[in-house]
Amino acid sequence: MSKEIINFKGIDFDVEFDFKPEEREVRYYPDGSGYPGCPASIDNISIYHKGVNFTEFIDEIVGLDKIEELLWEKFEDYANNRDY
């Protein structure tokens, strides 16, 4: 379970979620099989503020897709600001 703080409508929410990173395609294994890969995903989102679960409330108001979008933006910010 991953955790992030997301600011939504001026309020900081604690967001818990399952993150699965991208799995790259493998054209051929030694046995001749392969693997098509799969994109990164965010699932099982739970949203809290001061210990109170707001998941259903946020889902009804704007949908969890909006929270997922904010999480992806945060991941992109991390990736763009990384020092290699």
Describe the structure.
The structure is a single chain. This protein is α+β, with helices and mostly antiparallel strands. The chain has one domain (2-80). The chain is 29% helix and 33% strand. The protein contains 2 helices and 4 strands, in the order ββββαα. The protein has helices at residues 55-61, 64-80; strands at residues 2-8, 11-20, 41-49, 52-53. It has a 4-stranded antiparallel beta sheet with strand order 1-2-3-4. A hairpin with a 2-residue loop joins strand 1 and strand 2. The longest helix has 17 residues, at 64-80. It is elongated, with a radius of gyration of 17 Å. The model has no long low-confidence stretch (mean pLDDT 88).
